[in-house]
Amino acid sequence: MSRKKTPKNKGASAPAASALPAVNGPRPARPGTARPGPEAPRSGPPQPGRPSLGGGGDFYDVAFKVMLVGDSGVGKTCLLVRFKDGAFLAGTFISTVGIDFRNKVLDVDGMKVKLQIWDTAGQERFRSVTQAYYRDAHALLLLYDVTNKASFDNIQAWLTEIQEHAQHNVVLMLLGNKVDSAQERVVKREDGEKLAKEYGLPFMETSAKTGLNVDLAFLAIAKELKQRTMKASSEPHFRLHEYVKREGRGAFCCRP
Ligand SMILES: Nc1nc2c(ncn2[C@@H]2O[C@H](COP(=O)(O)OP(=O)(O)OP(=O)(O)O)[C@@H](O)[C@H]2O)c(=O)[nH]1
Ligand SMILES: [Mg+2]
């Protein structure tokens, strides 16, 4: 894998389009890294209509794995904490070591969809660890930081890496995070939109700090994955691109 190095361990390597949940095989043991608990599905999502009980006591109908990827410091861990706990991790930046995960069950149009969300380390030195997890991911949220141009420039390299290691049909969404930091912004919204269009990706700007579009990003992923599982659904066809375009809020909306 070819990857540009930047002074702050900024990642980098390339593209893919969106796609469908694949059946997961058992996860190989990786010493020193977090792994799913007993609630993790061992052989793909359970069938709809046969509710399962997760190890945390959450009932769910279907389960999917979502991975957060992007340069170190773009806000992956904060995005996950915002989504899971509704809080913001302010203060000292503690860089993720290896990989970690959290579960959350969403109600998606009457179905309990469990997302097992993997928070990867953006630092280059953990790349070989995180690469091994791509193949099991049903969806990827690829983040850059709108206040950090290098993190945006590295998106293409991340897309290359995704293309190399993830399922060809993985659901992929591009997120420009930290839009609350208007003064420090160096990546315009239009630049993010342009890049996303170039690669055919759904795109939103988010803020883990204010919560802007955070729940929406995960809900959109869950809706897309659920739809792909329901082969002969009578529900209207869900269109991920249109949904995030329609529902996504602007950076100046809804400040606390
Ligand atoms: N203003 C602002 N700061 C944020 C936001 N999200 C994250 N941060 C800050 O950015 C820094 C890095 O956030 P993390 O979530 O730890 O970054 P990360 O992508 O997980 O980094 P690695 O674990 O090293 O890959 C922290 O100091 C956060 O407080 C956001 O939406 N707005
Ligand atoms: Mg982190």
TrEMBL record:
SMART domains given in the database record? ARF, RAB, RAN, RAS, RHO
Reactions catalysed, semicolon-separated, are: GTP + H2O = GDP + phosphate + H(+)
What GO CC annotations are associated with the protein? membrane
Q: Where in the cell is it found?
A: Membrane
Q: How does it sit in the membrane?
A: Lipid-anchor
The UniProt family comment states: Belongs to the small GTPase superfamily. Rab family.
Tell me what this protein is called: small monomeric GTPase
- The source organism is Diceros bicornis minor
